[in-house]
Every structure is written in C-alpha cells, then in structure tokens.
Amino acid sequence: MTAVSVALLSAFAFNPAHAAPTCASSTAIDGTPMLICAEPGSVPVSDSRDALQVQVQAGAGITSTNRNTAALDLRGVGQQVSNAGRIENTDTRNNGYAIAVNGANANIVNSGVISSGDRAIEVLGGTGGMRVENTGEILARRQAVRSLEGFENAEVINHGLIESRDGRALQLRGDGARVINHGTLIGGEEVVEARGNFYMENYGTVLLRDGIDDEDGVQFASGEIHNWGLIQGSDDGVDIDEGLVRNYATGRIISTGDTGSGVDIDPEFDNGVDPIRPSGPLTIINEGYIEGPRAIGADPAAQSNVDIINSGTLVGRSGAAIELAPGQGDSTLTLTGGSEIFGDVFFGAGNDGVFIDSLGAAGVLSAGVIDGGLGINSVRFVSYALSDLLSFVYEDERVELSFMTAFGKVSGAFRNFSQWDFGVDDARFDTLTLASRFDGSNAVPAPATLPLLLGALGGLCLVGRRRRG
C-alpha cells in the first residue's frame, strides 16, 4: 500500500464527516426531554427518560444492522415517538427489532416506514398501555406489532399498511387489546391474533398473503369484533371462543379454504393466563355477507349457547350454512329483512329456537332443511298470525310449510321441531295439532296462551341438505 493510500484511508477512518449521524437530544421549555432525528441512517437510540418525545423527520431515519440492538429502544414511561421518516433494523435473524418497548404507555405515531428483518415493534417489558397509530407502513418478516400476555390494553389504530411476510400483522395477547383498522392488515399466519377482552372495528381489509394455507383472518378468545370491511382467512375468517361478532351491511367475512368457516366457534376459552375452561355464550349478528365451506361452524366439541341474528347472506359452500356442534347448548336463529341462507342449518343438543319476523321478500325459507337436532325445539312466527299460515304438512319427521307475508308467499322445510308459535295470536301448537288443520281431519287446533318470546327478525333462503350420521 502506498503512502498516499494509507493517508487517504486514515483520513476517511477518522474524519467526523464520515461518522454515522446521531439524533440530537434537547429539552423543551416545559422540561420535556426531546430527541430530534434529522438525518438518514442515524445510529440506534436507547433512552429511559420518562415522557421522552422522539421525532424522526421526513427523509431522516434511525437504522440498526444488528439484531442485538434495536433501532429505537424505549425504556421509560409515557414515551412518544413521531416518525415521518424511517426506523429500521436490517438484520434478518430472529429477535431483531426496529422498535423495542420496555416501558409502559408508549405512544408511537407513524406516517413513515417502520421495518425489520424480524419484528417491527416488539414489547419486551413494561405493564401495558402501548398505542400505535399508523398512516404509513409497518413491515416485518415475522410479527409487525407484537405484545404478549401480561402487557394489557395495547391499541393499534391503522389507516395505512401493516404487513408481515411470515407471521402475524398484529399479535396482541395481553388482556384488553384494541384494534381500529381503516387500512390494510396482511399476514403470513393469523393476520390478527388476540386473547381476552379483545375489541376490534374493521373498516378496511384483513387478509393473508397469497399462497398461505390454513390460517385465520382474526383469532381471539373473548370480546367483540365489528366489521364493515373485508376479513378473509384460508382457514376461518374469524375464529372466536366467546363474545360478539357483528358483520354490518357492507361487511364481508370469508373463508377461502376447503374445511374452515366464515365464523368458527371454538369449544374452550383460552386467554393464555387463566385456566382453560369451556367457552361461554356467543352472539353472531350478520347484516352483510359471510361465506365459507360453512358460513358459521362450530368445533365438534363445542357446547356453548349460540345466538345468531341474520338479515344478510350466509353461504355454505359445503352444503351446510350453519353447522353447530352435536352437543351445542341452547341456541337460536333469528331471521329478518333480506336474510338469505344458502345451505342447511344444523342445531345441536340444546333446546333451540328459530324466530321469523318481518320478512323482506317472498320466496323460500329453505330448499333444504333447518334441523333442530336434539332437545325441545320451537319455531316462532314473531310478526305473523295463524291465519297467515297457508300450508303445513308433516311427513317422515319433516315439516313443509308456507305462509303469507306482506311481500307474498314464503315456504320452507324443518326437521326436529315440535312447537310452533304465532306472535300475533300469542298461540302455540304442537306439530300434530297444527298439521291436522291442513290434512282434512276434523281436529280443531286449540291454541294455548303463552308469554311472547323474542321479538326479533326474519327471512331465510337455504339450499342443499346434509344427512347427519
């Protein structure tokens, strides 16, 4: 090496102009600690000052190339990050983070890019309260945003893109997690995974990356999900133990696989903290569109009570639109408005009820059958009188009936139902008594007074029929 080469090399090595930039530390007039990052590729930052405000300006960034060093390590309480630039960890090995949260009540507002060769935002410590608001991009190989059991009340509000190549877009396992999505969530496993007391509103898109098989769109143990957008999985669209699923008029919940359900009901409640127990009650309200091999299905071991209110469309590509477990508890199906159900309906062993109210169109309730299963099962025509019934034929344990609505004649078929109620008359009949009114015999049905049951909803169109083993 020549003397000139050595001199140039030495000058480059020790010239401060070639050193990686750093974020500037300062203090606001009110005493708030500040960290301003104004240049791209700034060295990683670790800071434990409470109430710290980190600002990464547009065109600037913080970069780590080592999984052992997060680009931004938040170790204080109530720290806030505002990123309009880029926060990244380029190491593709496991356990590398763009942002590591080790304190409580961190608030991360991203309009730029947060990316990692492993996980983008990871909670490693603290007690809870992290909030992520994204209008930019959060990208990761594994989980894009991750908090585990014990870190409660994490919240993600997304108007941009949160994407994981191989893992979950959101993995929020602590109690009370909350997600409001107006943007796009894309995952390589379950797109969203949560546990107990979870709450989600989806106005945007939740789906898997192309080619990902046997994974759910949203999976959680208990809580509520409200959907106005698209939730799609290759196994189940929504997988839930107990709580509420509400799919609004613009909402679509879809299972694209061969064996899953649009909404799947698990048999056990498992929040990862408390002892595992049988799942509690579940309510499903559908005003939009739910599709899968089964639109709504239950694990064969499920025993919980399930209440379904449908004024939208349920499509079961396998032939069963609703298939509850053989041992399912007392359950109900309420049909209203423009309800359409393409596929059979199978209840379980409980005392089940079908409630039909204010149908919005003439046609058929079912080209197949609504099967009540075991138990004492009833059908209630909530807004109809006995005089609206046009026909009622009982043969081979199957009832075929028709009745008149404001929109014309509606017909359908039922199996394993023994009680028939008419809300306008406050009257109840057993199957044989009601059938005798239409079979030409001299028997006169004697209605029995009963309390009004459930004032609810109505309209149903089912196709196909499945034989139970």
Explain what the structure shows:
The relative contact order is 0.06. With 469 residues, this protein is mainly β. It has a domain at 305-439. It is built from 2 helices and 47 strands.
Rg calc: 29 Å
Relative strand content? over 45%
Number of helical segments with 4 or more residues? 2
Give me the secondary-structure category.
mainly beta
The count of DSSP E runs of length 2 or more, i.e. the number of strands, is 47
Question: Biggest sheet, in brief?
Answer: 45 strands, mixed
Mean pLDDT reading: 90
Overall outline: elongated
Task: Work out the helicity level.
Answer: under 10%
Quote the distance from N terminus to C terminus.
Answer: 85 Å
* Poorly predicted residue ranges: 1-14, 441-469
How is this fold's topology laid out?
Layout: H1 3-14, E1 24-27, E2 33-37, E3 45-47, E4 53-56, E5 61-64, E6 72-74, E7 80-83, E8 86-89, E9 97-101, E10 107-110, E11 113-116, E12 119-123, E13 131-134, E14 137-140, E15 145-147, E16 155-158, E17 161-164, E18 170-172, E19 178-181, E20 184-187, E21 192-194, E22 198-202, E23 205-208, E24 218-227, E25 230-233, E26 238-247, E27 252-255, E28 261-265, E29 268-269, E30 277-278, E31 282-286, E32 289-292, E33 294-298, E34 306-310, E35 313-323, E36 332-337, E37 340-346, E38 353-359, E39 363-364, E40 370-371, E41 378-381, E42 389-395, E43 398-405, E44 408-415, E45 419-422, E46 427-430, H2 431-436, E47 448-449
Parallel strand pairs: 2-4, 3-6, 4-7, 5-8, 6-9, 7-10, 8-11, 9-12, 10-13, 11-14, 12-15, 13-16, 14-17, 15-18, 16-19, 17-20, 18-21, 19-22, 20-23, 21-24, 22-24, 23-25, 24-26, 25-27, 26-28, 26-31, 27-32, 28-33, 31-34, 32-35, 33-35, 34-36, 35-37, 36-38, 37-40, 38-41, 39-44, 40-44, 41-45
Antiparallel strand pairs: 1-2, 29-30, 42-43, 43-44, 45-46, 46-47
